[in-house]
Amino acid sequence: MWHWAKIKPSEIPVTLLSAALPLAAALFLSAALPAAAQEAREFQTQTGTVLVETLAHGLQHPWAVEVLPDGALIVTERPGRLRILRDGKLSSAVEGLPDVAEHGQGGLLDVALDPQFSANRTLYLTFAARGDDGYGTALARATLSDDERRLTDVKEIFRMNRFTRAGQHFGSRIAIDRDGSLFFGIGDRGDGERAQDPRDHAGALLHINADGSVPSSNPYRGGTEGLPEIWSKGHRNPQGLTFDTADGKLLTVEHGARGGDEVNNPQPGKNYGWPVITYGKDYSGAEIGEGTAKEGLEQPLYYWDPSIAPGALAVYRGTMFPEWNGDLLVAALKYQLLARLERDDTGAITSEERLFDGEFGRIRDVIVAPDGALLMVTDEQNGAVLRVSKVPTQ
C-alpha cells in the first residue's frame, strides 16, 4: 500500500528553468518520430486512452533521454555509450566520452543540454568514474560536434571527494537552473552514515556553476560548516531531479530501502533524514534509524511502502494532457510502471495512478517532450525508447 505525507513546503530560492526548445522540435516529435515507430499499443488510463509507441529498441541499459533542437533524441547507455536517435535510426556510439567506469549500478548516467545548446552545443554528463580508491560519481561538460559523431572540449567539472569499491547508489540526475547552474544528486554509495556527514559529497544534492565553481546561493559556500558544493543532505539515492517550471521549485525522487522511496523538495542546508529517519526497513526486515520523524529533519512530500524503486521524475507542463497539468510523473524500476501523482492547488500530493504495470520492463527515465508527449527509456539489456501520446476521443 502507498502512503503520502501532506506538508506545506517553504519556498526555495530557485528560478524557473527557461530554455524552451524551438517549435520545430515539437512539430518533429509529433510528426516524424511516430511514423518511424516499430510498435504501438493503446492503454486505458483514468483520464482517457494513451498510445505507447516504440521508437527504438536494442539499446543496452539506456539511462537517460533528451530532445535535441531539431527533434532528434540523444540517449545514454549505462555501459558508456551516447547515441542519437533520428528518423527511427540509432547512430553508432558518439566518440570522445570521458572515461566511464561500468561498475555495479554505475556507468554513464544522465545527459542534460545546456540552455544555450542551439548556439554552443554544450551538454553535461554524470557518470561513474575510476579513482585510486575505487569508484565515485563525476560530472563533465562537453561539446557535441556539428556532425554529432564526437564530443570535444570534454572537461570534468566535478568529482566526488571520497571514492570506494562499492557498486551501488551513484545517483544521478541533472537539473539546470535558468542561470545555467547545475543541480545533481549523489547517493550514499551503500553507506548510510555518509549521508549525514556534511563533509562528504555522498548522500547529497549538489549545486555548482557550469564551470565547476560554487554558486553564491549555496548554504556552505564558505566551507566552514560543510562542503561548499552541497545544497542538502540526508538523501539515500536520488535518481530523479527536476524543476517545476510553473513555480520554480526543485523536486527530487529517491530510493528507499525496503519501503521509504521519497519525493522531496530540497532546500538549502536542510537535512532529509536518511538513515536517521525513514519510512522503510532494511532488506533483512530490521528497523533503520530512530523512526519516521525527528526534530530538525525534513519530512517527505510523499513516500511509498512498499518501494517502487523510482527512476526519474518529471512535472507535467504541456498541452497534450491538460488534465495532467502539474502532476508528477515518476518512472519505476521494481514494479515496471509509470506513477502519476496528482497534486492540489497547494502542491500537496492527493492521489496516485499507476500506468503500464509490467508491460515494458524497468522504466528508468521519463521526460515531457516539447509537443507534450512523454518520452521514456527502459533499463533493460534490450532497452527501448518509448513515446506516450494521447489518443483523441471520437
From TrEMBL:
Cross-referenced Gene3D superfamilies: TolB, C-terminal domain
Domain Glucose/Sorbosone dehydrogenase: 59-387
Entry keywords, A to Z: Signal
Chaperone as UniProt keyword: no
InterPro entries cross-referenced by the UniProt entry: 6-blade_b-propeller_TolB-like (IPR011042), Glc/Sorbosone_DH (IPR012938), Quinoprot_gluc/sorb_DH_b-prop (IPR011041)
Keyword Cell inner membrane: no
Domain of life: Bacteria
Protein name: Glucose/sorbosone dehydrogenase protein
Signal peptide start-end: 1-37
